[in-house]
Amino acid sequence: MNNENAIAVISDIHSNVYALEAVLRDIDLRGIKTIVNLGDTLFGPIDPVKTAEILMNRPNLIHIMGNCDRYLLQEEMNSITFQYVKPLLTQEVLAWIQSFHRTWGDEELLFCHGTPFSDDKSLLEEVTPHGVVSKSVDILMSELASVPQKLIFCGHTHVAKSVWLPDGKFIVNPGSVGLPAYYEEEPYPHAMEAMTPHARYAIASKNHGSWKVEHILLPYDYELAAQKAERNGREDYAYAIRSGRAQII
Fold it and tell me: pTM for this structure?
């Protein structure tokens, strides 16, 4: 299959090297040469070192800085995930993370982790006291009014979604490669859930002047990843990886 002009968009690996290897294999089999990673790459209890090694050996891969990538550049953080991952990272890996782009794009495409303006906010959803709700079309058009690009890729929430706006902008979240669900207390208790254990990514390709977007759900040996998370004391990650649902604590 000749997809040399296509772009594969991956996001939110969270150190799940088993899902990453499956996704990269699939991308390579499709002949796609350009890969953009939307961030939150190593922050997880599975295999951050191997994840970094694989990605650093692909120098043409474009990386966006996620909030969890940024956290790893700090000296300290009150997080069990940070306390597991940070001591494993060499200065070489930290310098690599530091080289990630805040956003990246061209005249047509924009890639960011959360929103074009913040790495720790969701573009398509908002968390309210009553749960997670989708932002209205009017709010999205207002928030993106200063963004010239028409096709915007974002991650952060781990839930694959595509939203078309009346002003012609098209927003795509490719979903998470390695962590299909999570639960958080802040700003209000909420869960984000993909509802299946698949590794996810997206493909964008130009088709007769318009952009075609495909969401890919890829089976892989998620049991291996879940078992590794359990061995590292993270039943919450194991539950999410096996089920695509969040363990409510």
Answer: 0.96
Nearest to 167 by CA among 150, 184, 189: 150
> What gap in Å lies between CA 218 and CA 242, rounded to an integer?
14
Contact 202, 172 (CB under 8 A): yes
Distance CA 220, CA 222 (A): 6
Taking the mean position of all CA atoms in its chain, how far away is CA 244? 15
Residues of the chain with pLDDT under 70: 1-2, 249
- Find tokens 């700090």 and name the residue: 74
Whole-angstrom Cα distance, residue 139 to residue 141? 6
pLDDT at 2: 53
Of 16, 40, 9, 19, the C-alpha closest to 157 is 40
Go through the domains of the chain in sequence order and give each one's CATH number: 7-243 (3.60.21.10)
CA 85 centroid distance within chain: 18
